[in-house]
Amino acid sequence: WEKAALSIVVVGASGDLAKKKIFPSLFALYYENMLPQNFKVYGYARSKMNDEEFRDLIAGSLTCRLNDAGDCGKKMDEFLERCFYQAGQYASEDDFAALDKRMADGESEQSCADRMFYLSIPPNIFTTVAACASKAASSKCGWTRMIVEKPFGKDSESFQELSAALYEHLREDQIYRIDHYLGKELIENLTVLRFANLVFEPLWSRQYIRNVQVIFSENFGTEGRGGYFDQYGIVRDVIQNHLLQILALFAMEQPASLDAEDIRNEKVKVLKSMGQVRLEDMVLGQYRSRTTRGTTLPGYLDDDTVPPNSITPTFAACSVFINNARWDGVPFLLKAGKALANKAAEIRVQFRHVPGNLYRNKLGLDLDKATNELVIRIQPNEGIYLKVNNKVPGLGLRIDTTRLDLTYKSKYQATLPDAYERLILDCINGDRRLFIRNDELEVAWEKFTPVLKEIEDRGVQPELYPYGSRGPVGAHYLAAKHGVRWGDLA
Ligand code: BG6
After folding, report:
1. Which ligand 1 atom is at minimum distance from the Cα of 234?
2. 3-state secondary structure of 83
3. Where is the signal peptide (predicted)?
4. Among 136, 194, 278, 443, whose Cα sits 20 to 30 Å from the Cα of 117?
5. Rounded distance from Cα 292 to ligand 1 centre (Å)
6. DSSP per residue over 348-413, as a string?
7. Residue 282 in contact with residue 458, Cβ under 8 Å?
8. Contact 130/121 with Cβ under 8 angstroms?
9. Is pLDDT above 70 for 3?
């Protein structure tokens, strides 16, 4: 692609996401020489700061790659020189006009510069900022794109309002809705795995697959983020977006091409074929404190930012079915929780038994444990492995259920890029494959809104589980109802 001039504006520049993810990703892209030659970064937020103070603020969060050739410090200085700060109110067109002027000055040598806005701000001001920025600070002759990040509403109704309000100021092709899980290496690889290998796709159906599990587990609690979290809960925070997106990519039909619209058309179709999520197919949990070896790990309600007596779930598991010819009757189990025993995210595909397995009786092979299982380990220790049955070498006949293992760190030397790096770069390149289209979200909310309403109307109490445990036992009953055993995260 042509390296044109680009002004990047991070709105909400002093926030956590900006510091932890956006600026480090921008620097990594600069370091890798992936940004247009004439780029500048503008931080925009309410607090007063000059450029130097702003540079000091972000400098602390920039990091060098492990395999840095030694010029990282120099590159960091170069990058910071291209970072500027503009203080302004989020609802002030005048303040955005001042930003516009500043950018225009910086762009003056160029005939035309593109502008990318990253709205790293709370959802209640998305539309105000989108309005002010698009009116007062759009690119005059290049493109203007805005990256927005969830939460995209809380239910179908609030989503529709947000979406309509954004459309008043932006066209669909200007809105880049991020779901950062789609930027993770192993998720991007899902379509390669499926559609570029003969051995998987023919097995990818109800005929051979018993169940599919998508599991997200964190070994820490909300830790100060409870104020935000409590308004949403784990279903909205992780399941309705990250896990559902994974499910859609996993289960969709082969798209007509790798074009963004073709891929997203297939995702929408498969989401539409999914049944409603029902309360009877759901388990909710909330972590409580736990004392081990004299240390107390705080419960959700001990977080000062969480309202006392909150019944917001920090854990949820649910089963859903996709009612189409490929997946009819195959349970998809989604599970997400905070303050559990492990930090991991995985897709586990459990295959059916081998019909008429010759080794069944002879060797006392436990058929359930010995079924093939494909595990896509999204993080940490990214990799893919396939559980297979193998004869233990030697004169006897003993069968071992072992792994064909593709662990990334032993196979590939390169450090994996952060999801945000990939997604920001895609936005700059106008590649929307990994961004969510409005209608995908519309369907995602349709599937979850009724059950979320029911949970709230009925005041469903979550099952308490100790910090650092495997979560509520209810999740095991839910799986057992479908003849499924959750895979062990490893
Ligand atoms: C975010 C959620 O979208 O994803 C957080 O709001 C969660 O609650 C985070 O911790 C997990 O992302 P990652 O990339 O660290 O797995």
Report:
1. 8
2. strand
3. none
4. 443
5. 26
6. EEEEPPPTT-TTTTTTT--HHHHS-EEEEEEESS-EEEEEEEEEPSSSS--EEEEEEEEEHHHH--
7. no
8. no
9. no
